[in-house]
Amino acid sequence: MPSSWLQLSLRADPSALDAVANFLIERGSPGVVIKKNEVQAYFPHPGDSAVQRDVGRFLRGMHRIGPSAIVEGPRWRILKDRNWNSAWRRYFKPQRVGKSFWVSPPWIRPRLGRRHLVTIEPGMAFGTGTHATTRGCIEFLERVAGFFHGSAFVALDVGTGSGILAIALAKLGAKSVWAIDNDPVAVNVARENLHSNGVAEKVRLSTARLDSIRKSFSVVVANLTAETILDVARALQKKVAAKGFLVLSGILAGKESAVAARFRANGFRVLRRKREKEWITLLLRRK
Length: 287
What we know:
alpha/beta, Rossmann fold, globular, 33% strand, 9 helices, seven-stranded mixed sheet, four-stranded antiparallel sheet, Alpha-Beta Plaits, 14 strands
């Protein structure tokens, strides 16, 4: 364990939070915390400025793309704390998600009651149960599972990240789940999470392209961004079986109408919507 750590803090526009967090994880941060519109990340401090230089270059690039993406920062400070690991862990508590789940870091085991336990290692890939889009997806997947009245169904998780939605689907009764992500790092993390949650045999995990999958599914979930959803809308639509369900999230409020209109025009009906802060989750069904 390093004797000192670099702590980075910055405030970002909600639309930029995931991109910033993803870069910091890929740059080697073992702990990334998102609190409201603030990102905090921790790096081992070896006494050089390489991390600060790389982060600065990335943030300047984001500023060129969208001048309002980074609201404040970055701010750096050195933490000399031999108990840093314990200090970082205090940010992560078990979360009740929907009516069916506890989502917890592996070092805590909550009293489950009738809920399923999903164990996710924080700071490794997106989807720890704390983000509004993850919660929205899980709540709608619970509702969708109820339509099958205990019968098995097949599902597709597009952009699986940490694998949390694939795990939830497996625990909600899916006979099999296909989970895809174009990031090999995310796929490796998801594989570990699938094994630790005891659902690896139910989930087919890969970096396959969405348009290369030649089958349809009763349930499809895509927690991406509005822009990405619109880019892959045609391929997504083809993956949903007749009368099948589609859960979409990662949609900022101002983009909801464009996403909903695209799918309505192609044979889908919006059953429900959920808004949490600026994030929208949609539940659709193919006619």
